Amino acid sequence: MLKPEILDPQGQAVQRALPRLGFQGISDVRQGKRFELEVDGPVDDAALARIHEMAETFLANTVIEDFVVKVEAAEGSAGAQK
C-alpha cells in the first residue's frame, strides 16, 4: 500500500465514484497492490526472512509503499478457510 503521506489519485477517483454508483459510507479509499507467492517447502523463519527481504528489495517501492508479509493456508490444504 502507498504510505499515508503519498497522494493517491486513483484511490481518490474511486472514492468520488462510489456515491454515484450507490455505495455510501466510505470515507477514504487507498489503492494498492498484492503479490501472492506459493512457497516450495515449509514456511519457517528462514523462508519468511527471505520473503521479507524479497519484498523489501524487489517487490515494493519502499520510498512510497509500505508492505506486509503474511502467511495464509493454500486453498485445498488442511485448515484452509474460504
From TrEMBL:
GO terms for biological process, alphabetical: 'de novo' IMP biosynthetic process
Lineage: Bacteria, Bacillati, Actinomycetota, Actinomycetes, Kitasatosporales
HAMAP family in alphabetical order: PurS
Family in the record: Belongs to the PurS family.
Pathway: Purine metabolism; IMP biosynthesis via de novo pathway; 5-amino-1-(5-phospho-D-ribosyl)imidazole from N(2)-formyl-N(1)-(5-phospho-D-ribosyl)glycinamide: step 1/2
Record's keyword annotation contains Nucleotide-binding: yes
Enzyme class at the top of the EC tree: ligase
Pfam families, A to Z: PurS (PF02700)
Positions in coiled-coil regions: none
GO molecular function terms noted in the UniProt entry: ATP binding; phosphoribosylformylglycinamidine synthase activity
The enzyme's E.C. designation: 6.3.5.3
Subunit structure: Part of the FGAM synthase complex composed of 1 PurL, 1 PurQ and 2 PurS subunits.
Catalytic activity of the protein: N(2)-formyl-N(1)-(5-phospho-beta-D-ribosyl)glycinamide + L-glutamine + ATP + H2O = 2-formamido-N(1)-(5-O-phospho-beta-D-ribosyl)acetamidine + L-glutamate + ADP + phosphate + H(+)
Main location class: cytoplasm
Keywords associated with the record: ATP-binding, Cytoplasm, Ligase, Nucleotide-binding, Purine biosynthesis
Gene: purS
GO CC annotation, single: cytoplasm
Compartmental location: Cytoplasm
Organism of derivation: Streptomyces spectabilis
Name listed for the protein in its UniProt record: Phosphoribosylformylglycinamidine synthase subunit PurS
Function: Part of the phosphoribosylformylglycinamidine synthase complex involved in the purines biosynthetic pathway. Catalyzes the ATP-dependent conversion of formylglycinamide ribonucleotide (FGAR) and glutamine to yield formylglycinamidine ribonucleotide (FGAM) and glutamate. The FGAM synthase complex is composed of three subunits. PurQ produces an ammonia molecule by converting glutamine to glutamate. PurL transfers the ammonia molecule to FGAR to form FGAM in an ATP-dependent manner.
